[in-house]
């Protein structure tokens, strides 16, 4: 017989956006594998919605507002809206794009672009005037008397070290693992954080400075890659 993965592929080929979601196919496989061959004991899974209407746009907007890091797969699963429709809603309905693993506004306003450029220029000036500026950000100060507060423009994950470096780096260490409780989550998160080597942070801040130049050269627009 066919495996669950093979069945998912066949269904998608036959029904495209109207196919059952992957999780639903695996649920039915588990149901039948247990020996229960009845299709009446389980409610029939609803087909994902394919309409790019106001109701679905509002559902996607609420989900994105809760967490800008959600993937299209997660949004489709959560809202029961087909993958391709979610993608169209994000790009055409909400005018968003993915930047540094976050969905953000596709078009920035004039004031937002100007603010991004000004922040980058200010940071470059700080580094030029104070060679120890970045070192204070990296090491901090236990007494908090020497803490540096760095300005950050809104809607700018491409300019935030936590977004383009730290969170993706920690995600690689934690991905695919299951935890019993919150304490275990905290313990493993701390281990992942402590496993990051000093040279990785150094490279991150070097890339951060390059991103200032890219933002300035792009006149405040989003830019891709390093």
From TrEMBL:
One of its GO terms (molecular function) is nucleic acid binding. InterPro entries: Mos1_HTH, RNaseH_sf, Transposase-MT_Hybrid. Gene3D superfamilies: 1.10.10.1450, Ribonuclease H-like superfamily/Ribonuclease H. Residues 34-54 are annotated as: Disordered. Residues 1-36 form the Mos1 transposase HTH domain. Residues 41-54 have a biased composition (Basic and acidic residues). This is Mos1 transposase HTH domain-containing protein. It comes from Cryptotermes secundus.
């Amino acid at each position: 017989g066919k495996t669950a993965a093979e069945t998912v592929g066949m269904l998608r080929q036959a029904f495209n956006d109207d196919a059952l979601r992957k999780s639903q196919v695996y649920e039915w496989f588990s149901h039948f594998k247990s020996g229960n061959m009845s299709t009446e004991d389980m409610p029939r899974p609803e087909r994902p919605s394919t309409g790019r209407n106001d109701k679905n746009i509002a559902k996607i907007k609420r989900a994105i507002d809760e967490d800008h890091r959600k993937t299209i797969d997660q949004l489709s699963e959560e809202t029961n809206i087909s993958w391709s429709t979610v993608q169209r809603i994000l790009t055409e309905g909400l005018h968003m794009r993915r930047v540094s693993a976050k969905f953000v506004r596709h078009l920035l306003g004039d004031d937002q672009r100007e603010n991004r450029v000004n922040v980058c220029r200010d940071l470059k000036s700080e580094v030029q005037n104070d060679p120890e500026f970045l070192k204070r950000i990296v090491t901090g100060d236990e007494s908090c008397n020497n803490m540096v507060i760095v300005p950050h423009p809104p809607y700018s994950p491409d300019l935030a070290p936590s977004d383009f470096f730290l969170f993706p780096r920690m995600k690689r260490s934690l991905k695919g693992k299951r935890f019993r409780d919150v304490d275990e989550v905290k313990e493993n998160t701390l281990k992942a954080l402590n496993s990051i080597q000093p040279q990785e942070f150094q490279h991150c801040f070097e890339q951060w400075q390059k991103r200032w130049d890219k933002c300035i050269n792009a006149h405040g627009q989003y830019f891709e890659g390093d």
